[in-house]
Write a structure and sequence with these properties.
- This protein is mostly helical and 174 residues long.
- The chain contains nine helices and no strands.
- Helix 1 (11-26) packs across helix 6 (102-108).
- The termini are far apart.
- It holds the Pfam family TetR_N.
- InterPro entries: DNA-bd_HTH_TetR-type_CS, Homeodomain-like_sf, HTH-type_TetR-like_transc_reg, HTH_TetR.
């Protein structure tokens, strides 16, 4: 076997990009650092220099997915001054993302995650616009938990934006 080049510009980013592609195509269980090395035409040692093990690569992917999901949640939310419409847009965003990236969502759901700041902000606006809304400290985690539970159910049971939004509004009034 010919010796592969060790120093490739932005190799860490290329490794992470290929890992994400593998994860989205086959799931986290099939992710292989050696396959990534073969695909990128580098030695496994070059991959291990950037990510000493699969866990460190998965940790980097988790951060990437968290940032992407947070950005997805925020997308288009401020197009309306109505907090209920903002919440509906967030539901639309997260369900669309889950449909487009089911393996990423399955990976994301493996560990707990904090309530995104954008969701807390929308719930605070909702509380200001609808006086019967519970305090943000209770409502935001309840909504986030409900949304994550909906994502868990998606492979088995579909959910529409209308159904999820209606249930969330009911949850807020309970």
């Amino acid at each position: 076997m010919a010796k592969q080049p060790y120093h490739r510009k932005n190799l860490a980013a290329a490794i992470q990009q290929q890992a994400r592609q593998q994860l989205e195509e086959s799931g986290v269980e099939q992710l292989s650092l050696r396959q990534i090395a073969r695909f990128l035409a580098v030695t496994p040692a070059a991959v291990y220099r950037h990510f000493p093990d699969k866990a460190s690569l998965l940790a980097a992917l988790r951060v990437e997915f968290q940032e992407e999901l947070a950005a997805t949640l925020r997308e288009g939310v401020l197009d309306s001054p109505n907090a209920a419409a903002m919440l509906r847009r967030m539901v639309t965003n997260i369900l669309t993302y889950a449909q487009e990236h089911p393996q990423a969502i399955a990976f994301f759901l493996r560990t707990p995650s904090a309530v995104p700041q954008s969701l807390q902000t929308v719930v605070a606006l909702l509380a200001a616009q609808q006086p019967d809304t519970p305090p943000v400290g209770r409502a935001a985690p309840a909504i986030w938990t409900f949304l994550l539970g909906t994502l868990v159910q998606l492979p088995v049971q579909s959910a529409t934006v209308e159904e999820v939004t209606t249930q969330l509004m009911r949850l807020l009034r309970a």
